[in-house]
Amino acid sequence: MITLPHSLAQAAHVAAVLVVVLLLALAGRAAARRLRQPEVIGEITVGLLAGPTVLHLLGPGTFDVLLPGPVLEILKSVAKAGLVLFLVGIAHRLALPASGPDRRAGGWVAAGALFPPLLAGVLLAWYVVAGGDAAVRGDAPLPAFVLMVAVTLSITAVPVMARILADRGMSTSAAGRLALSAAVVIDAVGWLLCMLAVSLGSGSFAGFVRSLSALAVAGLCALTVRYALRTPAAHRLFVQRPRTAAVLLGAVALTVALGVEHLGMTAILPAALVGLAIPAGAGTAWERPVRTLTRAGNALVPAFFVSTGITVLAHGFARVSWGLLAATVLLACAGKGGGGYLGARLGGRPHRTALEIAVLMNARGLTELIVLQAGLAAGVLTAPLVLALTVMALVTTAATGPLLGLLHRAGTEPALAPKALATEGSPR
What are the subcellular locations of this protein (predicted)? Predict the structure, then answer.
């Protein structure tokens, strides 16, 4: 849930930290551009390195003074709010009648990018168990361990993919629409499977049932939002007072997303559902308020990457073997890339579009890290395995930009659409 400052001094502390975080993200984006990487890769890398670097250089005592627990929680709340607003705008673009993804093709892409990676995760779990290293295997029940590892290889990061698509002007391309819509479905299924794995590890199915209930609530809230926005009163408000409408729409999106998260589901899915529920169409009354939301969210998305990254590697991890690292990366790439390509082809997409989709589905980013944190906190995953999976997430996400560029240079990438989010406050 959202955490608010308790005093003026704490609010000033949060503001100062937020400025530093955004400056770090700016530096990360600049470094990524020089390396010809998507800018979001720089933001993720800076976020992951910020915590361990500052902790190592200054020590735990000074680190806690600069970033005490309450301030970090407020920073996370601000970043989460920005992510929700950004995803509302991204999902709304998927609802445009002229650019909505084909449902049949989207279903095949989602299936292809979900089931083969799950199988690859089962193979990785078998590799770990067969290796006999107790430090990597841990002592979680075998069904919980296998399912959690399978989930970690099936994740595709909606926020990271959305940023990559925006950076490359692919938000309205055939590959971009299909990949992002499939990623939303995979995120929902993956989160449910993650909760099931945690439940199996604890011996209780209460968390899984709670997540199913939260998913139902999210769908009901989205339908309510869609019905309310189609009323004449809502239309007049959006036409006559677009800024007020944007504030109200943002408040509704935050309430739904954070409320559903409190019930046991990630805030990403309900935010996307609210965006899809907003009526779409060129020149409609809802377009201007949605653009305002996207600008506000886009400005705060770097804080999500940095603040989340601070908590991921801010404590030491055990050493991990090169064999485990190689197996993790290879199985992850084979499962997502091969499955995404196969799904796109079965969905009737041409070879070049299927290649783009295969590359995009391998972008895992911080959604992967959130799942890893859940598995580590529940005792289902161990520190060495989390480190290997973190490296895998960085490698597969960092490879997305160069591979897309390679497809473009080879003449296999169709002409990119104009940068769709440039008019919505994107800094690129």
Answer: Membrane
Compute the distance between CA of residue 367 and CA of residue 374 in angstroms, rounded to an integer. 11
- pTM of the predicted model as reported, rounded to 2 decimal places: 0.74
CATH of the domain at 224: 1.20.1530.20
Domain assignment present for residue 1? The answer is no
Contact criterion met (CB below 8 Å) for 42 and 32: yes
> Is 287 inside any structural domain?
yes
Question: Are 251 and 243 a contacting pair, CB within 8 Å?
Answer: no
CA distance 209 to 375: 18
Cβ(202)–Cβ(140) below 8 Å: no
Burial of 115 (0-12, 13-18, 19+ CB in 10 A): middle
Identify which has the larger pLDDT, 409 or 391. Answer: 391
- Count H helices, E strands: the chain? 19, 0
- Could you tell me the maximum CA-CA distance found in the chain, to the nearest angstrom? 67
Residue 81 lies inside a defined structural domain of this protein: yes
Q: Is residue 2 part of a domain?
A: no
pLDDT tens digits, one per residue of 226-258: 898 888 888 888 888 888 888 999 999 999 988
Read off the pLDDT of residues 267-309 as tens digits, 9 standing for 90 and up: 777 888 888 888 876 556 788 888 888 888 878 877 777 776 6
The total of structural domains in the chain comes to 1
| Residue 401, domain extent | 8-424
Amino acid at residue number 385: L
